[in-house]
Amino acid sequence: MENLTTPPAWTRVTNSSLEPGGTDDNPYKCVFDEDFKYVLLPVSYGIVCVVGLFLNLLALYAFIFRIKTWNASTTYMFNLAISDTLYVVSLPLLVYYYAMGDNWPFSAGLCKLVRFLFYTNLYCSILFLLCISIHRFLGICYPLKSLRWGHVRHARKVSVAVWLVTVVCQCPVLFFVTTSAKGDAITCHDTSSKELFGQFVIYSSVMLVLLFCIPFLVIIVCYCLMARRLLQPTRGISRLSRSKKKSVKMIIIVLVVFIVCFLPFHVTRTLYYSFRSWDLSCQTLNAINLAYKVTRPLASTNSCLDPILYFLAGQRFMRFAGNKVPWKPQNEVALGMVPNSHLGTSSDTDTQLSKDLKS
């Protein structure tokens, strides 16, 4: 007969993930066995590191050596690739950390840097996707204005602003993140010490609104307006043009990637931080703890999916043979940034684009 005095596996203490500072005087009534994450996180981070590093280095090579003339969209994507590359090169440290069972053998400063790179990449990705979305929105819905505001020199200024805003907003992570000794192991926390946890939750909530909720809403509004414009029938043409179909597909793909990578992570993280101090059942706390740990790798997969978006956007990076590919207005039609009426028919555009890529 089962020993009824033995607590369930999920309530046995092997890793105090609900304990902000990792101290022994745990103020919470539930701590969980998290053995699953010592397999999930090293494997998932390892895959993201290998695949993301390969794809982003490939993308950077194409940007630097194979695209001769840049436009605003190219500038945003190049910066996005830099952000993703900086993040994936930090993942081997986390792979080793979780594979060793939450034992951080490196310095506290390196722990702070790894967590800082994670959040910097996360919000740089969101903001640069926002920039790309607004650029496409202007090109489709306000083509004349896009000729002025979509210039590459404006994109460079916006990119610098994105980096500055993100770095400044994430600098508190370097202050909050800490390490703590627990027996013979050292834990690299992704939150803060117990004394500062209340302030950390407030800071995280502000970042949630400023760097996720607002950009997400703007992207949804832009893409809804773009979709409505693209799906409107063209006079004399009953079916969608080829370039419009590509644009609609890109809208769907970007929204799916955004929802899969960023939305689950932010929802579960918000609940995770909130529930840690609420008087809830251990089952509820365990469920949200599990969900948060599972969605963390999803947030990292954007480093692998962003380069795929470059390929789908029409930047044929894989065709390296021949001369450099000039980024001409025809390429913008393939991206759905400029209406065909300003640059000729879609068939002419596709023919010219094919010639450019083969030249």
TrEMBL record:
Residues 55-310 form the G-protein coupled receptors family 1 profile domain. The keyword Transmembrane applies. Signal peptide: none annotated. GO terms for biological process: blood vessel diameter maintenance; phospholipase C-activating G protein-coupled receptor signaling pathway; positive regulation of mucus secretion. The chain crosses the membrane at residues 43-64, 76-98, 118-139, 160-181, 201-226, 247-267. It is a multi-pass membrane protein. Keywords: Cell membrane, Disulfide bond, G-protein coupled receptor, Membrane, Receptor, Transducer, Transmembrane, Transmembrane helix. CDD domains: 7tmA_P2Y2 (cd15373). This is P2Y purinoceptor 2. It comes from Junco hyemalis.
